[in-house]
Amino acid sequence: MITPGGILTIAVRQQDNIGWRCVGADGERGTGCDLVEPLYDWTGPYIGLQGGYGSGQNDVKFDRDALGPVILATGIFNTSSDDVIIEPSEDSKIGMDGWLGGAHAGYNWQVDSFVLGVEGDLEFADLSGDTNIMFTVFTPLGKIEQDIDWLGSLRLRLGYAMDRALIYVTGGAAVGGVDMKIKQPDFAGGNLDDTETRWGWTLGGGFEYAFTDELSANIEYRYTDLGDTEMFLGNVELTGDTKFDNAFSAVRVGLS
């Protein structure tokens, strides 16, 4: 362009903190050209920390051994309150909740306004819940406890960038440490404890904003399902397999 002073200037992109600028034919900065901030580029590696809160309502199912001598019903035990009542047999749930937090790392590739990334995380967790087991409303058996102690995931992210703002969906493989306990101190068989590493899947989405070239913050929702855990409950009063779902929803906030 021709400036009022008659000097020819051309706009060139500079890889510095200024972004676009005008320079004259002699290489000096020209006048009459507005500086324009370049769009933020999400391409590159990142690491960070995150934390949040999770909760879930998990099914508890009891399949009684047909040879058991006391309870005549076979099926799924349930209660509409906090207690599990075996007779009558219906669906049951354990409510669990708690905090979680850890670290993450990933890499993004941006093409036009679309951002494709891969991210992995590892977290400590304190998700827990329990409920009472009852033969009938008048006959207690013990207590069921469910805990998830740690979590990890390896996920893809697909997002749409609006300069420094990014909305995205994410999903992939999940893993966690699940601990199930059946406590029946007054019955033969005593306490049962089963700790397993369970694999499953996780799916969700979030919003991220880059405050500077080195710091971004995000908020994310994900649903995680780690499959089922089975335990065998056996004593003279009751025998059968107890199956627990291991699923929950969580909202996390993070810094990268």
Which key terms come to mind for this protein?
256 residues, mainly beta, eight-stranded antiparallel barrel, two-stranded antiparallel sheet, 68% strand
Number of helices: 0
Our Rg estimate from Cα atoms comes to 28 Å
Strand order of the largest sheet: 3-5-6-7-8-9-10-11
Which spans of ≥5 residues are poorly predicted at pLDDT below 50?
1-21, 66-80
Helix proportion range: under 10%
Mean of pLDDT: 77
- Main sheet summary: 8 strands, antiparallel, barrel
β-strand percent reads over 45%
Order of helices and strands: EEEEEEEEEEE
N→C terminal distance: 41 Å
Helix/sheet category: mainly beta
Beta-strand segment tally: 11
Which descriptor suits the 3D outline? elongated
Give a written overview of the molecule.
- The chain is mostly beta strands.
- It has strands at 9-13, 20-24, 44-64, 83-85, 92-111, 114-136, 139-162, 165-183, 192-210, 216-234, 239-255.
- Mean pLDDT is 77; it is low at 1-21 and 66-80.
Structure, briefly:
The chain has 256 residues and is mainly beta.
Lay out the secondary structure:
Elements: E1 9-13, E2 20-24, E3 44-64, E4 83-85, E5 92-111, E6 114-136, E7 139-162, E8 165-183, E9 192-210, E10 216-234, E11 239-255
Parallel strand pairs: 4-6
Antiparallel strand pairs: 1-2, 3-5, 3-11, 5-6, 6-7, 7-8, 8-9, 9-10, 10-11
